[in-house]
């Protein structure tokens, strides 16, 4: 599952630099997550770093982008250029 930043985001700038896949960007009003780049940090860390550093817990699972752990890892492999 890709993650999503709720509209309660306070734009604290904590999450964007922590994302190993460059999935987080500043949108029109708040930070947003590109679902095609979000792997929930699979392949990088044990848990999503953006969720760990968010001071107000405004990052959640995006119900519109449900993926299995295997799909997230496959996405990680492709993003890292490790696929043959």
Automatic annotation (TrEMBL):
SUPFAM superfamilies documented for this protein: 4Fe-4S ferredoxins
Keywords, alphabetical: 4Fe-4S, Iron, Iron-sulfur, Metal-binding
Matches recorded under PROSITE patterns: 4FE4S_FER_1, 4FE4S_FER_2
InterPro entries with a match to the protein in the record: 4Fe4S_Fe-S-bd, 4Fe4S_Fe_S_CS, PSI_iron-sulfur_center, YfhL-like
Keyword Iron-sulfur tagged: yes
Annotated 4Fe-4S ferredoxin-type domain residues: 1-29, 31-64
Record-linked PANTHER family: PHOTOSYSTEM I IRON-SULFUR CENTER (PTHR24960:SF79), PHOTOSYSTEM I IRON-SULFUR CENTER-RELATED (PTHR24960)
Protein name listed in UniProt: Ferredoxin YfhL
